[in-house]
Amino acid sequence: MRAVVVVPVLKQARASRSAQADGAISVSRPSESRLEEAKGLALAIDLDVVNGSIVPINDPRPATLLGTGKIEEILALLDEFNAGLVIVDHPLTPVQQRNLEKAWNAKVIDRTGLILEIFGRRASTKEGTLQVELAHLNYQKGRLVRSWTHLERQRGGAGFMGGPGETQIEADRRMLQERIIRLERELEQVVRTRQLHRAKRRKVPHPIVALVGYTNAGKSTLFNRITGAGVLAEDMLFATLDPTLRRMKLPHGRTVILSDTVGFISDLPTHLVAAFRATLEEVLEADLILHVRDLSDDDNQVQSADVMRILGDLGIGEAEGAERILEVWNKIDRLEPEAHDAIVQKASTAENVIAVSAKSGEGVDRLMDEISRRLSGVLTEATITLPVERLALLPWLYNHAIVDNREDNEDGTVTLDVRLTESEAVELERRMGNGPKPQREDWE
Length: 444
Description:
Residues 207-379 form the Hflx-type G domain. It is found in: Cytoplasm. The protein is an alpha/beta fold. The protein contains 18 helices and 13 strands. Strands 6-7-5-8-9-10 form a 6-stranded mixed β-sheet, with helices on both faces. α5 (111-122) runs antiparallel to α6 and α6 packs antiparallel against α8. The longest helix has 36 residues, at 168-203. The radius of gyration is 27 Å and the shape is elongated. 32% of the residues are buried.
């Protein structure tokens, strides 16, 4: 379908007041960057963007957002390019959306609707599909204009039109609410299943490393580079949606779980943040968070701020984040040689920063070493049974590990529930005769 993209830019004073009111940061983004991102979102669902324009607005109209002159200009564009869809990169009220559709005789969707459409196409797992559909239905609740009568086929049975005197829109709204309730119940069951999976992982406690970042920052490419997985990775906004988890071994042999999450974006619809909260809990429980940034994007500073704001909304504050978040400056292969060298030098002297190219592999070894170093102090739970000939290790264990429980068995062995660091776990394996033997120089 041919589409025209419109990016409304509110008067600066009004935009600033709005930002202070709702905590938004995206208003400071350059208008050209917003336009390019909006086009990218449209291309992500295979739309043919025939025109894109930035529309300054000094006095937003409650009925249409845009002024009469701009509405007529866009109508002329639709006729010129034979386009049947207008994407407005700004939240629209149901009244504004309906009025603009009447004025242009074309389908109109706002930023929230566009992101929901993309998520609807990308979701592949049952949980992802349920989350997207639930978010979409909640978004549509206030936009019912005889557009949801198809739900009657899902509801089944007779009497779907409701009782005497019930209007069609009331019947649609009732069917919509019933569908929302059913989806919420299904999602609750899926969430319980996910919680059971988390509980099982805790019994075999491997540290969790979560990838987060702005959409198209290269998270999935980095995920594939590190784990060898075949996750879809394309130069496209929201190329992947459903979370993916893989086990991987760090350079020193420790096993960790790497989690690739959905990409963030400015002005992420609140419906989606709420619907995907269960998925994003993987980030909350992570021992280490890798914040992947696209250093080749001139807008990466604002994108980073958007990501940190969403992490704050999820409950990861600045103080906690400073300890758990490692910035990964990605796509340095796209930089000019001089800029590349400057970024690598800056990253080498900065705290909590590693410069990499997930595509070429540059810097990935340093990243793996840093992940290993960061997680070396994370305690691992283990249950150990000491044979009689190894009981001399008991004093060492009490000095170097946290002993939560001890059981003296009838055969003389001792079973301990302990918590210890990675380095202590390796040393214990060596002392018990299961680990690598010391090299000759270690004896000298």
